[in-house]
Amino acid sequence: MTDLTSAFREKFKDAKHIMVVAGAGLSAASGIPTFRDGGGMWRSLDPTELATPEAFAKNPSLVWQFYHYRRTKVLAAKPNHAHEILAKMSVPKYLKKVAPSAKTFHLVTQNIDRLSPDMLEALSNRLALESGDNSDQPKREYVSPNSIYEMHGRIFDVKCTECDHCVEDRSNPLCPALGAADAAFKDYHDAGSQDIEIPVEELPRCSACGALARPGVVWFDEKPYHLDVINTIVYKADMILVIGTSSTVRPASTYAYRVKRHGGTVAVFNLDPSETDERSDFVFCGPCETILPTVFPELVSQTL
User: Fold this and answer.
1) Active-site option among 152, 165, 189, 226
2) 5-25: pLDDT as tens digits
3) Is 166 annotated as a binding residue?
4) Using the 8-state DSSP alphabet, how is residue 187 labeled?
5) N or C: which end of the chain has fewer CB within 10 A?
6) Is 139 in contact with 124 (CB distance < 8 Å)?
7) 134: CB partners within 8 A, 6+ apart
8) Are 272 and 46 in contact (CB under 8 A)?
9) CB neighbour list of residue 175: distance below 8 Å, 6 or more residues apart
10) pTM of the model
């Protein structure tokens, strides 16, 4: 164990209110491209220009095709060891191994991929089976309640543009037209120059009222979810881990500074340097799925 890791572990051991802010780097090893690297490009288009209300109003067909691609990527992805470690921190008996003084733990994720909640649910079910509970229902009492907040929404949510009805739907494709457009696009020799237009009436529709539906995610210039609760968590936190995020998107980019301002400890786990580094107490450089297991080896299973 390095001197940096040992010093961080001593601080972590004494933390009472632990907060994690996670970004796309957490899921990169699971095969989900990030918006801000070359792997995040889609059909030679910039995803940041598609993830906006204006883009959807102008061309809902194109935006839905982009999100069909993203949904397909997420459906094929599996949680990695970084997801596992954070999920175990939501379980009191595991958290006490590394933070015996901890009273609360919260994960605030900017990711929409559902990998963290899915990992936590799988862990909860496994703990239930180990205890002799063979029911089919997830046993949330084995984990800390409300420990994960998905501030940018969820990739599988389908939300009405008129009545706000929202349901989770993991169907692939979500509607026949999206599957057909995807197959047709892959058949083009010069795919980058093609634009497949799906009629609006063939795009996903609201299951309640039949109006046009949209992805249930937070787009640029939209207000993130759970901000009041998250602000309370930030106010109480005496330890914040910034994991896999460039810390450029507000308000998540402000959380580390706010925790530091009221005397908390800031630890960054990231592949590339970021603006957060200079005001951090600890900086761990490298892939999250590699660095976190070296820092918290007792929270890693041999298999996921």
Assistant:
1) 152
2) 999 999 999 999 999 999 999
3) no
4) H
5) N
6) yes
7) none
8) no
9) 202, 203, 204, 205
10) 0.90
